[in-house]
Design a protein that fits this description.
Number of strands: 5
Strand content: 5-15%
Number of domains: 2
CATH topology of the largest domain: Beta-Lactamase
Order of helices and strands: HHHHHHHEEHHHHHHEEEHH
Organism: Microbacterium imperiale
Pfam family, one: HTH_31
Largest sheet: 5 strands, antiparallel
Shape: elongated
InterPro entries: Cro/C1-type_HTH, Lambda_DNA-bd_dom_sf, MLTR_LBD
Strand order of the largest sheet: 2-1-5-4-3
GO molecular function, one term: DNA binding
CATH class of the largest domain: Alpha Beta
Radius of gyration: 22 Å
Protein name: Transcriptional regulator
């Protein structure tokens, strides 16, 4: 009995093939100095064009996209990365796919996480939270939990919170913000992680997430200024900054702030004052969008 081709393909090489197909479809002829001829039907580059530019045979490149054969050499991967214009993070991700290394046991925050949680609790005038490689929020200060309408509290997932209908409507730059968040998820989570599979399966019910995940983006601009509509107040301009946690690889610290003298700074101040008084009524309730 003949074994189906799909059953014979190692999972990590199948993932590599999927990544190569996605990047080929996104890369345009103009991006690599080729002329776009009339009647061109492929969404991006053709396989033979990638092979020629990378200095490999078309047959070999086809096998790579199909996940067949042995692991490609770093030299071949570097040549393909050059064709697709991949940056350092995207190249690192592609090498990780090719390696087939199993995921390490989940990294618990431990003492470092507890210390960060204590620090966050002392940040009383700006929302801040820490998420792991799957963007599961493991620590958040009270202001983040209130400003996020509960979505940014510890125990929630930052990606899932972002893909709510409320946030899609309220956040002006939602498309760019969501794409960047999805890219960090692919970048930081191990491709074979059970939690990643669970999360992707859950979120793929949303066609917007499915569309973004299919792009296989790894690096997008993370630090950003976005605008969010808050009922009873108007549109707030929020500055978001993300920081890697050196002691916890894959973990990310996110800080939201408002420019000095801005309405956003005033709203955060009112939320902080309400929390200090021991409640979330009044000013805090009217300024608690779901993030």
């Amino acid at each position: 009995m003949t074994t189906p081709l799909s059953a014979a393909v190692p999972p990590h090489l199948a993932q590599l093939g999927g990544y190569l197909r996605a990047r080929r479809n996104i890369t345009q002829p103009e991006d690599v100095g080729l002329e776009r001829l009339p009647g061109r039907r492929v969404p991006g580059l053709r396989r033979d064009e990638v092979a020629t530019l990378a200095g490999i045979s078309a047959e070999y490149y086809l096998r790579l996209e199909q996940g067949r054969g042995a692991r490609p050499s770093d030299q071949v991967l570097a040549s393909i990365a050059r064709v697709f214009g991949l940056d350092g993070e995207a190249r690192g991700y592609m090498l990780r796919l090719a390696s087939g290394m199993p995921p390490a046991p989940p990294l618990a925050p431990g003492a470092a996480g507890e210390q960060i949680a204590r620090v966050l609790a002392k940040w009383t005038h700006t929302p801040a939270y820490m998420s792991d490689a799957h963007r599961d929020i493991v620590a958040a200060n009270p202001l983040a939990a209130v400003f996020g309408g509960g979505g940014l509290a510890a125990g929630n997932n930052q990606i899932a919170s972002l893909f709510t209908e409320q946030n899609k409507t309220a956040i002006v730059e939602w498309e760019d913000m969501a794409r960047a968040a999805v890219a960090t998820l692919r970048r930081d989570a191990h491709p074979a992680s059970p939690r990643l599979r669970q999360l992707v399966a859950q979120l793929s019910a949303d066609p917007d997430f499915a569309r973004m995940w299919a792009r296989h983006d790894v690096s997008e601009r993370e630090d950003a200024c976005f605008h969010i509509a808050v009922e009873g107040i108007g549109v707030l301009e929020v500055e978001a900054q993300n920081f890697g946690v050196r002691s916890l690889p894959g973990y990310q610290l996110t800080v939201l702030s408002g420019a000095p003298g801005s309405v956003t700074e005033t709203v955060f101040g009112r939320l902080a004052a309400a929390l200090t008084l021991g409640g979330t009524t009044g000013a805090s309730q009217e300024a608690a969008p779901s993030l």
